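From the shared-data thread, chain only:
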Amino acid sequence: MNESLFTLHQVKGYIATIYLIEYRDKVLLLDGGARHDAARIEACFAQVMQRPMSDLKLSLVSHMHPDHAGGAPLLRRQFAIPIAAHYEIDRWYRGSRGVAQHLIDTLLGHYSARQQFGRLERAWYPRRLEPDYRLYDRETLPLFPDWIAYATPGHTLHDMVFYHPQEKLLYVGDLIIMVGEKIVLPFPTLFPELMADSLKRMAELEVNKLLFAHGGVLEIEDANTFFTGLLNLVGMPNRRSFRRIEPLCSLAADVRLYKKSRKNVGAARK
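Structure, as tokens:
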């Protein structure tokens, strides 16, 4: 990586790895992590980068799950750092079903942390993000025009990944996950058809380095081969036990609306 452009910092969060992109005059946060990760980010500024928090100019949120959307609101409240996210991200937890889904997702985040790391931290966070900047597909980031946001639904309807064309660097959020040396799709993959489309779109990008929220950094030689090779995983839960709890992840109103629309389309074709 050309160090004259930026320096990449990794922060080990409660559940996910958090990435800080340090430029000479500003810093970009790729996902705010969980609630208590805000303090870890602040520590990285003080102890590693030795910069004031005012140099953090933008927090990105890839989607509304607790290990990605919990820290950014706290950083905004404490340091007035603006948030950028999908323009419809606040639809995900809307309504009474959204309240239930938000609670379940938070509990599942705790379960994941306990299983992986044997620890529990407070992870409750607002179910509405109210981003300062609402991002559309293929839009350059505010304040960081060398980065491009891509809509990649599949895990939720409002997932985004963030791409730096010059460095051929892609932050994949929860589009894909690396467990050891194995690449898997996230749980849940609520919209398999959309996930397949998202993987195909990423296969068209020039990428030689992936930043995983779950799994660290991976260099790849051919993005087309890498992403198209994952298409056979769509619709295949990476653990059998996930099938039993998948209905708990399908309460959000948009899941029901999407499945209803798919059913109606199928009926019309018949």
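Residues 7-233 form a domain with the Metallo-beta-lactamase; Chain A fold (CATH 3.60.15.10).
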